[in-house]
Amino acid sequence: MTIPSKAPRLVLASASPRRLDLLCQIGIVPDAVDPADLDETPLRDELPPQHALRLAAEKASCVAARHPDSWILAADTVVACGRRILPKAEREEEARRCLSLLSGRRHRVIGGIVLLVPDGDGHRRIDRLVRTDVTFKVLDRSETDAYVASGEWKGKAGGYAIQGRAGALVRWIGGSYSNVVGLSLHEVAGMLHGAGFPHPPIPHPNDEQA
Prior knowledge:
6 helices; alpha/beta; 7 strands; seven-stranded mixed β-sheet; 210 residues; elongated
């Protein structure tokens, strides 16, 4: 008689409701959501990709200590203009500065993703960096005022949320859209699958009953 192995437990190390919604969109529902409370201030001379991956790794490590037998998924999203890391806007003046920098320019959205897989007495780490290029239209004063008045920029990297009203401000995007929202679904699904995490099957349209 074969005893079935226990299903792995997945913990999302993020307080972002967008990341949770994205995972659920492709049928991956974490068993727990346990965010890490970290200082996200960039280190001196830290480049945007390094910053994104470092924070994702620190989040994963922090949460893994509380869930030693679970799979841990952590991510961080950085909006960068050149070498400059834009803040997660919390005040109106921050949002306006971000929008002024982004207006009419191409910028990068960099996602750092870290997956920790239980491996004996510890975890095995798998990580990825995802880059998406985004170009904003030239914003006039009324457009900036209207977007700031919406309030949806609060707590968002770079002061905007592409899945909201800012979608009308984006002239061009190259790369993963879900990465800009908060988590590259293609990369996460590939990481989980490659590490052996069971993924729910995608139903075929012919399987649906009328």
